[in-house]
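Here's my example:
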Amino acid sequence: MSVLFRNKYLRKRFCKLHIFKQMRRVNFYHRFIGCFLILTAGFFGSSYSQTIPYWMQGKFRDDYRINYMLTDTLWFQLPNAKFHILKWNLEEEYIIAGNDTANPGEQGLFTRIDYMKFEGMAPYHWGFCLTEYKAASAEDASKKPPPDRKNPRKGCNGFPFSRMRRSW
């Protein structure tokens, strides 16, 4: 045994320092690999390319005083309806979601939610239409024809789009 390890205090200190250096090295490699994967995800066709538009994320209240909370993967119609977002179609402005099994109605079925931005309707900046809410499959929901976005007052199956504004 070398002179360095004869002293118990120095041996503990050396081991702690050695482990700390190894941990720093591992953390650097994990960070490097993580950054590499994030930066190259767009080149290799990431499954996360369809995400929520920035102006739709957060908490909202519609013109019927119903509260909503939206994330990339969930659409909450408070207090007790939840939709699991399966697909964001940003080009055609609609969402395909699975109805939660604990919802008060249409449990386990599929919903198509079309949305659009509004101009000159402050405080309402966007609206949505439940184009389909009881489809047997996600494919059936996506095949439903889109609402009439040129007429948001009657274009949602004869009803107006629900207008949304930020809340709480």
